[in-house]
Amino acid sequence: RSPAAGGSPLTSQQAGHRLFRLIDSLQTPADFSLDRFKAVMRLPEPPGGEAGEREPGYEGFSEAIAGSDWSQTIAYSDDASAADAKRIEYRLDYDGAQADHDQLDLGPACAMDYAAYRRALLDMGFEEGPATPSKVEYATRGTLAHVFRRGGVNVDIVTQRESAASEAKRAHACVRSIEVRPSAYDAAKEEG
């Protein structure tokens, strides 16, 4: 895990704000590029010789979230062998002892909750698709998948309730992961 530029950690809130700027800058599949990802996200360079060990077309950053058993990962990948392989990912990972996902407490990593992400995406002109699984499964597992689309850009968000500790925390949706990718249909149209 690398410390952020200047030695201070990149908070999940800072990562979220940078991700908003990056998503807003993506209008077409052609906008997905490693250069744009690097310029907007401003992630720290890996120490020493790690740069040469990376997979081609992949740039990533992972860091523990202070005061918690959570870490955040931000990555860009582009597998040149597949037309729909470009994607940007943000995810939270639980680094503590294995636990039942129903009992995890996302509170320390939930600086920007789903309501904030949803508002920002709708303000950017994204259209919201249906959420899955059903409300019944959300009540038992605490996770939902949300889909947003604008032009040639898809944003998939997986949420999980903050914790099972109280009714308010059960109702509060935190972002567990975000995947941003070009729409396969629009990418094929652009190339053709």
Q: How would you characterize the overall build of this protein?
A:
This protein has 192 residues and is of the alpha+beta class. The protein has six helices and seven strands; from the N terminus they run ααβββαβαββαβα. A hairpin with a 5-residue loop joins strand 1 (58-64) and strand 2 (70-77). It is globular and about 45 Å long. The N and C termini lie far apart (41 Å).
Task: Describe the global form.
Answer: globular
Mean pLDDT: 80
Terminal CA distance reads 41 Å
Q: What structural class do helix, strand and pairing data support?
A: alpha+beta
Major β-sheet annotation: 7 strands, antiparallel
Estimate percent helicity: 25-40%
What is the H/E string? HHEEEHEHEEHEH
Which value, in Å, is the CA radius of gyration?
Answer: 17 Å
Number of E-type strands: 7
Main sheet strand line-up: 1-2-3-7-6-5-4
Q: Please report which band the strand proportion falls in: under 5%, 5-15%, 15-25%, 25-35%, 35-45% or over 45%.
A: 25-35%
Total of DSSP H or I helical runs spanning 4+ residues: 6
Low-confidence stretches: 1-6
